[in-house]
Design a protein that fits this description.
Distance between the termini of chain B: 45 Å
Strand order of the largest sheet of chain A: 6-7-8-3-9-10
CATH architecture of the largest domain in chain B: Up-down Bundle
Order of helices and strands of chain A: HHHHHHHHHHHEEEHEEHEHHHHEHEHEE
Low-confidence stretches of chain B: 109-113
CATH class of the largest domain in chain B: Mainly Alpha
Number of strands of chain B: 11
Largest sheet of chain A: 6 strands, mixed
Mean pLDDT of chain B: 85
Structural class of chain B: alpha/beta
Mean pLDDT of chain A: 87
Number of domains of chain B: 2
CATH class of the largest domain in chain A: Mainly Alpha
CATH architecture of the largest domain in chain A: Up-down Bundle
Structural class of chain A: alpha/beta
Number of domains of chain A: 2
Oligomer: heterodimer
CATH superfamily of the largest domain in chain B: ABC transporter type 1, transmembrane domain
Low-confidence stretches of chain A: none
């Protein structure tokens, strides 16, 4: 997993190495700084030098300080460059894959999670590449550099450092595992208690209707307090790993101070050596502590990466085909022969050996109760799904051999829940025909009975709609979808329960509009409304994946 | 802003014992490392003069104690500060709930509910970290700063201004500079990210439409452009952040040099080493301040948003004590209503009389205020003109609780709580025994379905349990209304999102519920309620 993630470093290896080099340089400068500090104090303290005599050394310290300033700054900028580029690459790659996987993968409950993975999940990688990974390298390099300096100065101190250094990660891993097990056992309680408040807030109106809302105050207090108790129980364990880290590092510094002080007392080392080692000792542990502090970012980042890789590893189902349908002069004619589709996770087929004929330039209604296979049929026609077996033929050509996006250009689809993009109304219509002129837009809007809606919007055509903009009602959204269909001017029209949620008056107005739209087009109407069926030339009755009636 | 701050501090004050403990441990943690480095340096300097071991005895004990103390104090500090956080979270939720409950749902409906909820929860989460990130670090820094000033004063008074200046620079100057520099970059990052995320949301949630219109390449390109903007903003911010980190390290180093320059001619040379190392260790207290100030800004903004929701006065009517009506008749008399004072009137001089026990169906095109009738009848909103009566008495004469006790509602969207089916049903009547629950479920055509679930009435449902389908939710809502046994029944498009089979089942349950109750139905589906009188709501 890590290795796969680290492959994304390849395009940014230069800034990555730069950030590590600058970090290492920073560590070496710190050693130099400690050396100069030792020299200054040693000369003044034991050799009775005055300020003037140590001024060059102090000047050297200022120079090193400035150099460290540069290294810190540059290292941060370089590390950021690595992180942002990798996030960008992974996001683009994942998004492209998701688009190729198609709506079968994105619709339903998964969509929220997908959006979350592509936004928050990607951001969680920032900490990993920005902090954790460079610090992982520095945690090995900088202590090594300090060790090389300390060894000739004082072997005993070097041994203390050398022995404690590997203990730290070991302890942290052991304690981390134990803490992980404890928190896992608490996880369900915690997530239930944590979610309760959200649940109450969402159901506030319901609670109020039953006069139960005031009683909830006590429950909120109680459950939030239980949440605190449960969380603290986990934290008491989780914080032990940082306790161990702190304890080992500061205690080692203390041990070195005492041990070296005593030997200084008996003249085994010089003050110069002793003080130099003392100044370096905390610096030895600093990179390890930095790594420990950002370690949780590593777990977050890796679990986000896992989710991204899970998406990337989902195999594509749509085979790539390249044939282009010749411009249908006489309209589109569809034939399904023994078409079966079974959803991967289900045993029962959604469509079972369906054979049907949809004649060109006529309107065919497909009726049936929910779960009869209507939506599956539409998904197959739009090539969001591919049949498990059987053949769909368009004007005699197998649909599977056609290039999917070229085929979709022939199809206009007015769905039950058309998606309104977070853009202006104009752009939402232009989606169907990017080159559309204002006249064409006006015409399409008029056909779809949308002009009245536009007149009411604060900025007319330029009003932002969608989640972040003005709210359109279901009927208004439906009219946008119909206007799109007019603009697209495709040979096949699929009317997919588009008026299911609307009142009669709006529905009949939209159906009148549909009547104009479906002239000279092959039209498929998915519906369970009698009013709609009456307008069709033929009716196909679908039930439990079978054609039960073909009128 | 200061008002918001005072409000937030007011929430923390009751927790002062925990706050005091956590600040104390915070000071002891950093104090330990200052003392560890200072005493260690003194130990070595003193040892260099070859005294007897006894002279070093206390220092040796001190070094070991501080070495252990640091870790232990840190652990205690983290525990106590998290206690504050989670106690604060608990109190915040209760405080917010108590404030928002009287406002629901009318005063909240201007905000789209999903949006409002995510914002509220996000804001509460920000506030939850208020103490640990914004309050504790400055307090610890102040105590450490004062302590260091005293220590340096004893060495030589001239050292004090240098150290204080460095602390002020690190704790206030650099954060201020960083804030000035990166305010714009920070805003640019947030804005660029929001744009990018919106497009991603569009592509994924609107993927069927994107594909059918063949716009995938266009969207990929748009994502790429927006991300480049985002990356540029991030780089700008990183330049500022890096500068801030680098500036802190520069200030720390230069301060040590300056203290040496001042100290070398003036203090006992044996104290130079402790001076240098203790001061270096003390900077740890000032490094988190920049983040603390940023957090403070975010916290104040979150607090302001929450408070702004709460300044709305609830629509509580003066305490009134009309008795529970004997005849559940409903009357709208020349009712006029608009959601905002200047807005379009949703209802204008609307009158409607429903006799006790009668069923009336209100029909009309979407969006002309049918659902508004329900909100008005429940007293969630108040009409600008006209009177609404139940049992001949204006509804403003009833207590809010009494009013809601008279009315059972089945609406388009029924909230199912994360709880068992039994608990979800008992919400409507906490005293109901199992037999009553079963009878209600049977009448609502729900009992057989419940028995088919693995744990029957004890099956966990809702977001974290079994997810009910639309039809099942509606039948549960009907069972609730039957349990509530209110004399008035309101059906607000209860079958709107259901297919014919489910609609039939739900309607069967509804027929049961309508028996002997005054019923107001709002619907498109006129066929479902053959016995109801039809009223057209004019446009």
């Amino acid at each position: 997993m890590r290795r796969r993630l680290h492959r994304y470093l390849r395009p940014v290896r230069r800034p990555f190495y730069l950030s590590i080099s600058l970090g290492l340089a920073n560590g070496i400068l710190t050693i130099g700084w400690a050396y100069l500090l030792t020299q200054v104090i040693d000369r003044v303290f034991l050799q009775s030098a005055d300020l003037a005599e140590v001024t060059p050394w102090l000047g050297g310290m200022v120079v090193l300080a400035v150099l460290r300033f540069g290294c810190t700054w540059g290292g941060e900028v370089a590390a950021n460059r690595v992180a942002t580029q990798i996030k960008a690459d992974l996001q683009q790659q994942t998004l492209e894959h998701v688009i190729r996987l198609g709506p079968r993968y994105t619709v339903g409950e998964r969509s929220g999670e997908l959006v979350n993975t592509l936004t928050e999940g990607i951001e969680a990688l920032d900490g990993y590449f920005h902090n954790v990974l460079p610090q992982l390298f520095l945690m090995m390099l900088v202590p090594l550099a300090i060790l090389i300096v300390v060894f000739p100065l004082d072997i005993l101190s070097a041994v203390v450092l050398l022995v404690t250094a590997p203990l730290l990660p070991m302890f942290m891993i052991l304690i981390g595992r134990w803490a992980g097990a404890v928190s896992k056992s608490q996880f369900e309680t915690m997530s239930y208690l944590g979610a309760h408040f959200l649940d109450v807030m969402q159901g506030l109106t319901t609670l109020k209707l039953f006069n139960r809302s005031l009683a909830q105050t006590k429950t909120i207090f109680r459950l939030s307090d239980d949440f605190r108790v449960a969380t603290m129980r986990v934290l008491r364990v989780a914080f032990i790993s940082s306790l161990a880290l702190e304890l080992l590092t500061t205690l080692s510094v203390a041990i070195i101070a005492v041990e070296i002080g005593l030997r200084l007392l008996y003249d085994r080392v010089s003050f110069e050596q002793a003080f130099f080692v003392l100044v370096l000792a905390p610096e030895f542990y600093q990179p390890i502590r930095n790594f420990g502090a950002s370690f949780h970012a590593s777990t977050n980042g890796l679990s986000a990466a896992q989710r991204l890789f899970d998406i990337l590893d989902t195999p594509l189902t749509t085979p790539s085909a390249t044939a282009i349908l010749p411009t249908p002069q006489a309209g589109i004619e569809l034939r399904l022969v023994d078409v079966t589709y079974t959803y991967p996770e289900r045993s029962q087929s959604a469509l079972n050996r369906v054979t049907l004929h949809i004649p060109p330039r006529q309107t065919t209604a497909i009726v049936g109760s929910s779960g009869a296979g209507k939506s599956t049929l539409v998904a197959l026609l739009l090539r969001f799904l591919e049949p498990s077996s059987g053949v769909i033929a368009v004007n005699g050509l197998p649909l599977a051999t056609l290039d999917a996006s070229a085929w979709r250009q022939q199809v206009a689809w007015v769905s039950q829940q058309p998606y309104l993009f977070n853009a202006t109304l104009r752009d939402n219509l232009r989606l169907a025909k990017p080159s559309a002129t204002l006249d064409e837009l006006q015409w399409a809007a008029e056909q779809a009975d949308l002009l009245g809606v536009i007149a009411q919007l604060p900025q007319g055509w330029d009003t932002l709609i969608g989640e972040r903009g003005a709210h359109l009602s279901g009927g208004q959204a439906q009219r946008v979808a119909i206007a799109r269909a007019y603009l697209k001017d495709a040979s096949l029209l699929i009317w997919d329960e588009a008026t299911a949620h609307l009142d009669h008056e709006t529905e009949s107005r939209l159906l009148d509009s549909l009547d104009r739209l479906r002239q000279k087009r092959t039209t498929i109407m998915i519906t369970h409304h009698r009013q709609t069926v009456e307008r069709a030339d033929a009716v196909i009755h679908l039930e439990a994946g079978h054609v039960v009636e073909h009128l | 802003m200061s008002n918001t701050f005072r409000h937030l501090v007011g929430l923390i004050l009751p927790l002062w014992r925990w706050v005091l403990a956590s600040i104390t441990f915070g000071v002891l943690t950093i104090g330990s490392s200052i003392a560890l480095m200072g005493v260690s340096a003194w130990l070595i300097a003193r040892a260099a003069l070859h005294p007897s071991v006894a002279v070093l005895g206390i220092a040796i004990v001190g070094v070991r104690a501080f070495g252990i103390g640091r870790g232990v104090f840190r652990y205690m500090e983290r525990l106590t500060s998290h206690e504050v956080t989670f106690r604060l979270l608990r109190d915040l939720r209760v405080w917010f709930y108590q404030a928002i409950e009287p406002l629901a749902p009318a005063r909240l409906s201007e905000h789209r509910s999903g949006d409002l909820l995510t914002r509220v929860l996000g804001d509460i989460q920000t506030l939850e970290n208020f103490y640990i990130r914004a309050i504790a670090p400055p307090l610890v820094a102040v105590v450490i700063g004062l302590g260091m000033a005293v220590f340096l004063w004893i060495l030589h008074p001239l050292l004090v201004p240098i150290a204080l200046m460095a602390f002020a620079l690190m704790g206030l100057g650099v954060p201020w500079l960083a804030w000035r520099l990166s305010r714009r970059a920070g805003e640019a990052v947030v804005a660029a990210r929001a744009d990018l995320n919106t497009t991603l949301l569009d592509v994924i949630q609107g993927l069927p439409d994107v594909l059918v219109f063949g716009q995938e390449a266009m969207y990929l390109e748009q994502v790429q452009t927006q991300r480049q903007t985002y990356q540029r903003a991030q780089t700008q911010l990183a330049i500022h952040n890096g500068l801030q980190m680098a500036a802190n390290s520069l200030i720390a180093s230069l301060t040590v040099v300056a203290l040496l320059v001042v100290g070398i001619p003036r203090i006992d040379p044996i104290l130079l080493a402790p001076l240098a190392l203790a001061v270096t260790a003390s900077f740890e207290a000032f490094l988190p301040l920049a983040a603390a100030f940023q957090q403070m800004g975010a916290t104040i903004a979150a607090g302001q948003r929450l408070l702004s929701l709460l300044v709305e006065r609830p629509l509580e009517v003066p305490p009134s004590t009309a008795p529970f009506p004997t005849t559940p008749s409903i009357e709208f008399e020349r009712v006029t209503f608009a959601y905002t004072p200047s807005g379009r009137a949703v209802l204008k001089d609307f009158s409607l009389q429903i006799e006790a026990g009668e069923a009336v169906m209100v029909v009309g095109p979407s969006g002309i205020g049918k659902t508004t009738l329900v909100s008005l009848l429940l007293g969630f909103w108040e009409p600008q003109g006209g009177i609404i009566r139940i049992g001949g008495e204006p509804i403003t004469h009833y207590e809010g609780e009494d009013l809601r006790r008279m009315i059972g509602v089945v609406s388009q969207q029924t909230h199912i709580f994360n709880a068992t089916i039994r608990e979800n049903l008992r919400l409507a009547r906490p005293s109901a025994d199992d037999t009553m629950l079963q009878v209600a479920a049977q009448h609502a055509q729900l009992h057989e379905f419940i028995m088919s679930l693995p744990n029957g009435y004890d099956t966990w449902v809702g977001e974290y349990g079994y997810k009910l389908s639309g039809g099942e939710r509606q039948r549960l809502a009907i069972a609730r209304v039957l349990l509530k046994d209110a004399p008035i029944l309101i059906l607000d498009e209860p079958t709107a999102h259901l297919d014919p089979a489910n609609t039939q089942a739900v309607l069967a349950g509804i027929q049961q519920a309508m028996q002997g109750r005054t019923t107001l139905v709002i619907t498109h589906d006129m066929a479902g309620y053959p016995m109801a009188r039809v009223v057209e709501l004019p446009t």
